[in-house]
Amino acid sequence: MSRAAVVAGLGAFVPPRVVTNHELAQRLDTSDEWIRSRTGIGERRVVDPGVATGDLAVEAAGRALKSAAARGVAGADLVILATTTPDRPCPATAPDVATRLGLDHVPAFDIAAVCSGFVYGLAMGAGAVAAGLAARVLVVGAETFTTILNPADRTTACVFGDGAGAVVLRAGEASEAGALLEFDLGSDGSQAELLMIPAGGSRQRSSGIPAVPEDAYFAMQGRPVFQSAVLRMAASSRAAVRRTGWDLASIDWLVGHQANARILHAVADQLELPRERAVLNLDKVGNTSAASIPLALAAGLAAGSFRVGDRMVLTAFGGGTTWGSATFTWPALDPV
Amino acid sequence: MCSMTDSIIEILVGRLEIRAERPLTPETTFASLDIDSLVLVELAVIIEGQFGTRVPEGALTARQTIAEAAAVLDGLTSPQHGAPEVLAT
Predict the structure, then answer these.
(1) Per-residue pLDDT for A68 more than 50?
(2) Is A228 on the interface with B (CB under 8 A)?
(3) Contacts across the A-B interface (CB distance below 8 Å)
(4) pTM
């Protein structure tokens, strides 16, 4: 049997403050009906002033470590944090998170793949296990996405929220429940402008031209993103499932990046899967970027939706553009 | 034979569950169906899946009739159209 990374723990955390569609409608030209019909989102969580991505990551990762410890896996010897909203541009947020979790001196780094970051992180973690670089890997997706939103931009202000989710991977066998089986990853830099914060990086700084305030915010071209997201997530899911040797019809759960309910339904349609097999929790948390997939997994675990051995497909699409999919079977886990 | 016009009507009614007071005809405009902006994107995605062609951003617009949209899509799916374009540029 080949050495594989096995999901041993899962944890999630969202900040307590709820912002409803009605609250947004008081300051934007929108309504609860408009947001719900176009996105499926009813409310999202938003951090209080002073709370940063690392704070959410520590909470979620602490729960994932506790979940793994309950199954006999203690600690981690590598920390990978996927985020678009690090605590600061430099240094990375992961070393601080590792230290705050008591994981002293372990390698720790951030991944920037926007909404695909968690799937990319899982792939890097699985690769580290397969290569013998680490035996236990903490993979975190954490975002305070509301900190990069233009409050006047209806297309993003209604969609995104804050949160964090994490898994612990351990070395095991591909035949075990929870084993990560196959990945499909990709990117297309010609689509960089579809999802972008134009200012704040070396491209703008080296130009010598001061940034206009709007360029410091995240901007999204909704329609082409919708179209590409559906097509890329469907194609990537298909590729990962084929490599695994599964039939699409045998998939129990499609856990897609929680971008938009209509995107996820369209992906299920493209894969000819019943829409009920697409896990949806964005009605309560919105689009949390790199945190969305582990948050959706944790919601499914808490609801008792998944059975041990269920065939799972994770799929994501995000800025870059980037996309990625992973297959695994559902492990025995306890909600934390 | 199933024309592109028939395909669009079938997708709108069958897949996207668009309900109209009168039956859809080739002369029906998208705008008259009171559909939101994402429906045309969803239509484009389904056409791409069914016909294996790229539907560029802006190819379908609310002002088009179903027949006009079908003509645009027929142009995209015809053999001489060549290689697929880069997605959503």
Answers:
(1) yes
(2) yes
(3) 52
(4) 0.92
